[in-house]
Amino acid sequence: MTGFASGAEPTGPAAKPGSTRDEQSVSHAVQSMFNGIAPRYDLLNHVLSANVDRIWWRRTARAFAPVLGNPDSAVLDMCCGTGDMTLALLRQRTVNGKPVVALDFSHQMLERAKEKFASPEFSAFGVITVEADALHMPLPDNSIDLITTAFGFRNLANYEAGLREMARVLRPGAQVGILDFNEPGGFFGKIYNLYFRHILPRIGKTLSGASAPYEYLPHSVHRFPKPDEMLAMMQTCGFVQATWIPYTFGIAGLYRAVKA
Questions:
Q1: Which residue of 57, 75, 158, 248 shows the fewest CB atoms closer than 10 Å?
Q2: In Å, how far from its chain's centre is CA 206?
Q3: Which one, of 42, 88, 49, lies nearest residue 65 by Cα?
Q4: Total domains in the fold of the chain
């Protein structure tokens, strides 16, 4: 789920839409935001990213091909949104394997994901959809072999709590992959930030009729922990071998780690 959350504070609310402050109101605000933009969410993502987002999903899925190719591995796509990251995982998945679990707390986004999962190309995989908060996942301890989340981690009301919840459900030695935005540096970063902060919100408002989400997006990326901060937080929350792989000049990147 391409996110609109923000904040680098590891122990307090991360996402802060509008004037929200406490974690409960943050979660409600983010949930309402995604339910509201769900009907045109896919179109906006592809237009605003010039379809580069599809490349990022495929690249992330290929990074975990060995796990996905094991029919006995249990896989969770957290904050799945309309399901595009889940579909990328399924393309690397064996058909007779355990169903991938797709979890999100936006009912409207998840309904659109279900339509994709029911298509002839993917219906044989039997994806299990779960409508739940990523900070309180209804999954047993030590039960998952791989968790991915694409542009959804920034939506969490508390980053550190989110990482600890992911560590809780992962088996020891299991992997996590967090794909999210970053602010690139240098001359390219200046040009990109000009687009991201000034042009993208106008296009988003024109296509969706809603200005707040696309004004909030660049602010969320600016406040999101930088790669070194994010890696340190992952290590604090029970992960080892944490790395960051930049995508497309550092516009986005994949955080990978293993549960200790």
A1: 248
A2: 25
A3: 88
A4: 1
- Residue 231 included in any domain: yes
Task: Please name the helix (run of DSSP H) or strand (run of DSSP E) that holds residue 178, with its range, or none.
Answer: strand 170-181
Q: How far apart are CA 97 and CA 69, in angstroms?
A: 8
| Residue 77: inside a domain | yes
Looking at residue 203, which CATH number applies to its domain?
3.40.50.150
SS3 for 128-175, per residue? Answer: EEEECCCCCCCCCCCCEEEEEEECCHHHCCCHHHHHHHHHHHEEEEEE
Q: What is the pLDDT of residues 81-99, one digit of tens each?
A: 999 999 999 999 988 999 9
Domain that holds residue 199: 23-259
User: Global pTM?
Assistant: 0.86
pLDDT in tens, 25-53: 667 777 767 666 666 667 667 666 778 99
Using one digit for the tens of pLDDT, what is the confidence trace for 166-223?
Answer: 999 999 999 999 999 999 988 888 888 888 888 877 877 777 777 777 776 777 788 8
Three-class DSSP category at 236: helix
Q: Amino acid identity of 124?
A: A
- Residue 16 covered by a domain: no
Comparing 137 with 201, which gets the higher pLDDT?
A: 137
Tell me if 82 is assigned to some domain.
yes
Assess contact for 71 and 98: CB atoms under 8 A.
yes
